[in-house]
Hints:
single chain, elongated
Amino acid sequence: MTESPVTRLSTQEAWELLRGHEFGRLAFHLADEVHLVPINYAVDAQDRIVVRTAEGSKLLGLTMNADVAFEVDEVDEHVARSVVVRGRARTLEGHEADETEGLPLRPWVDTVKLNVVAITVDELSGRSFSLTRPWLHLRPEHA
């Protein structure tokens, strides 16, 4: 019997992947549209995904509808791993926002991002994919 090329990550493995990265994608609602944006993030001691954002459509969308999805993946030559989170976003203020200052949350773009948003995880799933990549022989460097 052949092993499946797709396996589920354990909860611990999914959290390790989330904690080991700082860049993911956030899906949120804005009015009657779904938006998907790249963001940098950190995981706090309460197992929340924390982001900083400026005023704008992302913050407005998160304020109007707290239901979000978040995704992070990693790919190498042999394996791809992906974690998807469904949760609720909430803007942190005062002491709660101050507590996030010690997180390794570094903006990738040099802009002011004063709003701190935490995503409480309601659902977490992860998968690992063994890559056979049979198409590699079609690349020009292999011709």
